[in-house]
Amino acid sequence: MNTKPLVTRIAAALTLSFVALGSQAVTPTPIKNIVLVHGYFADGSGWQSVSNILTRDGYRVSVVQEPETSFEDDVKATRRVIDAQNGPSILVGHSYGGAVVTEAGNDPKVAGLVYVAAFQPNTGESPLVLTKKMPSATKAIAPTADGYLFLDPAHFHEDFAADLPADQANFMALSQVMPAAQSFGTPITAAAWKTKPSWGVVATADRAINPDLERFMTKRAGTKTIEINASHAVYISHPEEVAKLIEQAAMGSNKS
Predict the structure, then answer these.
(1) What is d(CA 234, CA 245) in angstroms, rounded to the nearest whole number?
(2) What is the pTM (predicted TM-score) of this model?
(3) Contact 228, 202 (CB under 8 A)
């Protein structure tokens, strides 16, 4: 009896089975915890649309409300939320929040970083040092008598949220959070993007952070970057695109 055809068929079937198993093994499962960090002159409520999209898509979202009393306090507040997660997280920062996640992202429970029109300092750098390299277009940020900063409400719409409706931007101006000026000059002790994968959004019409500075920082860090024609408030005006990038980070950061 010639058993060669049977053996050939069995070998082929086994090969297909191993290929199928191999394909399943390399298909990553997305990280499900997303931690969102806001920046200056805003609070966590600005993430609402992004949060709704991520929640709809099955992610567990947490929003950090930084006190903005010092850089150290903001990092502590972020780490507190990271530590409360039930597994690894993607840490997302907007604007000054990018500096916060660069420091807090060293937490072992952080698997990846996303920078949304954000500062992405190197070790030993601060946002202040970076803005001196490439200043922003806005000239409307001023100090208070007790060492905090505010963005002149008369210029808030054009300089922070030009692609949002005027009434929405005006209310954001009236309800802005004033950060401690000291936090802007605090250097990073260890840049998490050196050891964690990162993704980024460059807002090409940004007047609060120079878009060329955003490009410089993301290129230097090897950050996977997209560009969106948007204001500094890109996370509010383009939530679908921002949420999509966060989901890509959640998929790409899981190497298991």
Answers:
(1) 13
(2) 0.89
(3) yes
